[in-house]
Design a protein that fits this description.
The structure is a single chain. With 191 residues, the protein is an all-alpha fold. It has one domain. The chain has helices at residues 10-52, 59-72, 75-80, 88-91, 96-131, 143-172.
Length: 191
């Protein structure tokens, strides 16, 4: 692979993108491990309940607490891989600068949504931590599961901020190499 061009920060953008990819991959792996564990907790619950009439204590609380990890820790990785719901039907018809402008506008909207959501999830975490919120049955603290959205949305905000820079660069020079932008696997890269 040829090194990215230096115009408008292409090399710096590429380095930042690669560094963020490491973080995204790590959070996706954690989310994958959590969902794998949830699967086995479910199997254990069924076996214990059916075979021994002894349900697994705290199973429901554990599942509820883990949901944020396997959904929100993987969100930025999915976004980077263009695995999220996209408006490719509309944007796919654009070429050149018009395509990059449409992508930039969509990214601005996504970034605005994340910026609006982040203070709320941070408040939920802060509140759960300081009041000592816990689950009803097992009395496990809820703050770890409420910290997960803060982490997941922060990584996603970093991804979208990087993407805004990348799309602005492509709007300025539509012939530049696309760096740090999601490319849907079902579309050709030059579309």
């Amino acid at each position: 692979m040829a090194p990215p061009e230096r115009s408008m920060g292409g090399a710096l953008l590429d380095r930042l993108d690669r560094a963020l990819q490491v973080v995204e991959f790590a959070t996706a792996v954690v989310g994958g491990v959590v969902i794998f564990g949830v699967m086995w907790v479910g199997v254990a619950e069924i076996l214990l309940r059916k075979a021994f009439n002894a349900p697994l204590y705290g199973q429901l609380d554990l599942i509820e607490q883990s949901m944020a990890a396997y959904t929100l820790l993987t969100i930025s990785y999915c976004y980077r891989k263009a695995g999220h719901i996209r408006v490719d039907i509309v944007v796919g018809h654009f070429k050149g600068r018009r395509k990059w402008i449409a992508e930039l506008m969509a990214s601005i909207a996504a970034f605005g949504l994340i910026v609006v959501l982040l203070p709320g999830v941070l408040h939920f975490f802060d509140n759960a931590y300081y009041i000592g919120d816990s689950t009803i049955n097992t009395q496990w603290p809820t703050w770890p599961s409420k910290l997960i959205p803060v982490i997941g949305f922060s990584v996603l905000a970093a991804r979208i901020a990087l993407e805004l820079w990348a799309y602005a660069r492509l709007v300025a020079d539509p012939l530049a190499e696309p760096i740090a932008v999601p490319v849907p696997s079902h579309l050709p890269e030059d579309a």
